[in-house]
Write a structure and sequence with these properties.
about 550 residues; alpha+beta; Cytochrome Bc1 Complex, Chain A, domain 1; 6-stranded mixed sheet; 5-stranded mixed sheet; 11 strands; globular
Length: about 550
């Protein structure tokens, strides 16, 4: 249930999770071909556009904080008899407790297992059976973890009791009933995503099914059930094996982030370390939910064919009964400044790869839009600097890009660069070529056209993101969560318009330094020969 988002036009983009960085490699190299040929003068001044759009949306958006602390946004867009929603929880993989990496992702999986009313044939009996599952697992896990004095026969006996308890609880399960009900009532795009910074749930549905959606969504937020928890844990374990353990790029990125970060949770894999993920239990998941799925930590946006006067009472009816709780304490861990270049080198028989990253501040930094400008100028399509230099002109790379906010934006992240060498070329060549482009940013002003095109694309992309219910719900919910006011989405354009050539040089010189750099390389080596195989003969045929 994890979605790989496309690059978003404004700052609160959701970048792909580390294990999905391979998505970048096959992404279209020209995301906006039409905009690349648009003259800046064809769009209105940024401040005028922002004010016009803000005034238009203020008439259509209703914001309310319910008594329990949950924030609701209703966006009236009556173009078609449908609506989309976006629930965003201000907690993601970075909030996994120490020793429980992967638990935020696990809870995303649980959210599709139903509630105490959906997905069960007999909730009172199932509740008792699930408690027995937890009790038997705790006994088994306690014996299994013993480093001294473990009794193998007792481990086997306790494991059998645990398996029997799971089988007993399974008899009450109606598989996939939650998703089935939604789909039978016209829901499309049913999905969820766990990122480092947040967890999101979303789908679209006919407008006349709004109350059904509110019943279902409020149920899984307020009354989650650890149904088939250990079965789903096995599913997530398999995800890790496919996306990281058996994927050279996944392994490289995992080690890259673990090397770049020494203190902050951004250095942990979102899917979790295998030893921790394999031992997370449902009791720990319930504790995570109680801490982070409190209404004051959640924003829900609903956009489509609805009226606030009739929709808000429905939201209040279903979401306000969710028990209130304190907003989680903010994270106090701060990544210490990096004072030397760090590296990861992986040697194996696979596609060579190069990635490097530089620590930067979080999304609240006044320079945030300058990083957007650098990203756009270096990487936006076939006219971008990295594409033209490494792919088109030198013909040494199949793909080359730079992007900000990796692996997250809520806390200080990385500005990263990567390149995929063509056959006959090496990661070291990618490194040298990328550094030449970085040095140009430090020593030479970008052109008037490059800066103007960045600002033009930002305006057009903003409008494009708001052209449908899904984009509206996602964008406004995210900005409401991060800034406390969805209007900040439009204010970003004014900040973008103020970015100057001098700003770009200043930030490039401040951030892109050797001591602030971590890089990772996959070097291709010949596959190992089977034992006893004859060595190739030297010389000719």
């Amino acid at each position: 249930m994890t979605k790989c988002y496309p690059a978003q036009p404004h700052r609160m983009r959701a970048w792909p999770a580390p294990f999905l960085i391979a998505c970048i490699l096959i992404a279209c190299t020209d995301l906006l071909p039409a905009i690349a040929q648009t003259k800046p003068a064809e769009t209105p001044a940024t401040s005028d556009l922002a004010q016009q759009e803000l005034a238009r949306f203020e008439k259509r958006v209703t914001t309310k904080v319910l008594p329990n602390g949950l924030t609701v946004l209703l966006i009236e867009r009556p173009e078609a008899p449908v609506f989309s929603y976006y629930t965003v929880v201000d907690a993601g993989d970075a909030n996994d407790p120490t020793g429980q990496s992967g638990i935020a992702h696990m809870f995303e999986h649980l959210a599709f297992k139903g509630t105490d009313e959906i997905g069960t044939t007999n909730w009172p009996a199932e509740k008792m059976a699930l408690q027995k599952v937890e009790d038997t697992y705790a006994a088994y896990d306690n014996e299994y973890r013993k480093r001294v004095g473990q009794d193998p026969a007792k481990v086997k006996q306790l494991r059998e009791a645990f398996d029997a308890a799971k089988k007993d609880a399974q008899q009450y399960v109606i598989p996939n009933q939650f998703t089935q009900i939604a789909e039978e009532n016209g829901a499309t795009g049913i999905n969820a995503s766990t990122a480092l910074d947040s967890t999101e749930y979303f789908w679209s549905m006919p407008a006349n099914r709004l109350e059904l959606w509110a019943y279902m969504e409020s149920g899984r937020i307020g009354h989650p059930v650890p149904r088939e928890f250990y079965k789903e844990r096995d599913v997530v374990m398999e995800e890790r094996r496919m996306r990281t353990d058996s994927n050279p790029i996944g392994r490289m990125v995992e080690q890259f982030l673990a090397t770049a970060y020494v203190a902050h949770p951004y250095g942990r894999p979102g899917v979790g370390w295998e030893s921790e993920l394999s031992q997370i239990d449902a009791t720990e998941a319930a504790s995570f939910h109680k801490t982070y799925y409190t209404p004051s930590n959640i924003v829900i946006a609903v956009a489509g064919d609805l009226k606030a006067s009739t929709t808000m009472p429905v939201m209040e009816k279903y979401f306000d009964p969710i028990a209130a709780g304190p907003k989680p304490e903010p994270m106090t861990t701060v990544e210490p400044p990096q004072n030397s270049e760090k590296s990861v080198i992986i040697r194996e028989a696979t596609q060579p790869f190069y990635i490097e990253g530089y620590h930067r501040s979080d999304y609240l930094d006044p320079d945030d839009q300058i990083y957007d400008a650098i990203t756009d100028i270096l990487s936006n399509g076939r006219v971008s600097r990295l594409y033209r230099s490494l792919v088109r002109d030198q013909r040494i790379a199949a793909e080359a890009e730079g992007f900000s906010g990796f692996p997250g934006t809520k806390y200080p992240g990385l500005f990263a660069f990567y390149a995929v060498p063509l056959p006959g070329h090496t990661p070291q060549e990618m490194r040298t070529a990328i550094h030449k482009e970085i040095d140009k940013l430090k020593t030479q002003d970008v052109t008037d056209d490059e800066l103007a095109m960045f600002k033009t694309r930002a305006r057009v992309d903003l409008l494009r993101s708001l052209a449908d219910n899904e984009g509206l719900a996602q964008s406004l919910a995210t900005y409401q969560l991060r800034y406390g006011d969805w209007r900040e989405l439009f204010r970003q354009l004014d900040k973008i318009d103020k970015v100057s050539k001098a700003d770009i040089r200043r930030v490039a010189n401040k951030v892109f330094t050797e001591n602030n750099r971590t890089y990772a390389i996959i070097e291709t080596v010949p596959p190992q020969q089977p034992a006893g195989a004859a060595a190739p003969k030297a010389g000719g045929l």
